[in-house]
């Protein structure tokens, strides 16, 4: 799935993040929510780590970056006055990734 709006919808309907997986070497590996709620299991530790890293808060931040980049690309050829808000939105979305 590569549709940002569809990903955002799924992320907002999921248990909020951050998620984590302790990485204990017992199978299956468990993915926990912010209150240590048991959310899912994965047979491989790498899969559990990946699923935990792709929690809804992370997906929503990536969607904001994708949408801001799309908006920027759509106005990149226009006058500087129009580009400034698009650049500001892209910078704000990128700043979300640093949090």
Number of helices: 4
**Structural class category:** mainly alpha
Binned, the helix content reads 55-70%
- Estimated radius of gyration: 17 Å
User: N-to-C SSE series?
Assistant: HEEHHH
Give the N-terminus to C-terminus distance in angstroms.
25 Å
Number of strands: 2
Largest sheet: 2 strands, antiparallel
Low-confidence stretches: none
* Nearest-integer average pLDDT: 82
Describe the structure.
The structure is a single chain. By secondary structure, this protein is mainly alpha-helical. It has a domain at about 55-99. The chain contains four helices and two strands, in the order αββααα. It has helices at about 5-15, 45-55, 55-75, 80-95, and strands at about 30, 40. Strands 1-2 form a two-stranded antiparallel sheet. It starts with a helix and ends with a helix.
Offer a few descriptive terms.
99 residues; mainly alpha; 2 strands; 9% strand
Provide a compact summary of the structure.
Helix 1 runs antiparallel to helix 3 (56-75) and helix 3 runs antiparallel to helix 4 (80-97). The protein is built from 4 helices and 2 strands.
